[in-house]
Structures are given as C-alpha cells and as structure tokens.
Amino acid sequence: MSDDFSVFKFPEVRSMEESVAILDKYRPFLTSEQYDAILGTIGTNNIEGIHLNEDCIVALVRMAVYNISADDMISEVLEKFKNE
Fold first, then answer.
1. One-character DSSP codes across 11-69
2. pTM higher than 0.90
C-alpha cells in the first residue's frame, strides 16, 4: 500500500455495502482485529446515515497500519487539504 494519499479524491458512496467493498480492497494490509475495528466504524457511521468513502477508509486503514492517532490524522488531512 502506498503511503501517498490524496484528500477528497474519491467519489461518495451510497451504502454500507459499498463502504465494505472498499474496505475489502485493503484487507490484505490489516490484521483481523484492525479489519473488525474499521468494519465497526463503518457500521456505526451507517447507523447515522453516513457512508464512508475511500478517502475515509484509507485514513482509517493508515491509522491502523501505521499507528497514527486521530489527532495526527486530522492534522495531516487538514494540511493536505490546505495544499491542494
């Protein structure tokens, strides 16, 4: 998996199934525990009517794989957003 990720480049999704399909693309990079945790986040957001797109899922995968804190991820996303 490339460490380079661009903010807000992926289209919106319309269902939990689409979000899970995106997560499944990154499954080889995740432990079972990491996958289940991200799947839980997708499910929780789905209950609220929010469907995570690939930008969001890539951020969650990066947080899990590289042990990045939520605060650091937010800072990184904001910095990349400012530079685009």
1. PP--SHHHHHHHHHHTGGGS-HHHHHHHHHHHHHHHHTT----HHHHHHHHHHHHHT--
2. no
